[in-house]
Amino acid sequence: MGFYSRFIICLGLVLLTHAGYSAHEHSTLYSNARSSLPSSPALPLDITIETLVAVLLVSSALVLGAEKLKPISWNVWAGEIEREGGSRNPYNVLEYRPGFWDVRTSRKEFSKWIRSQGESNETTRS
Fold it and tell me: What is the value of pTM for the model shown?
């Protein structure tokens, strides 16, 4: 995330905080001044506009400052990780846990065992 997007996010959050504080103060002041009225009036237009601008600023800065999206297809994303050597793999922690079954190693051992059985059968037939 770049400097500008972080700056815009901070500015938007400050505006949103100010709008929330202004809305709270408006409701508190109105309820103290006019306690005899049953309903409170709507928020002033400037507080509403400030809230909308703040939400738009924060949302747009978060979207523009986000990382590049990963491919939707699992095989494309996994292929990229495998070509890079697996350093970016988010599941590395899960793959190398002791006490869990390693499928790839088991497949290699099984294929070696099958080849060795086939070779031993060919030598016994000759």
Answer: 0.52
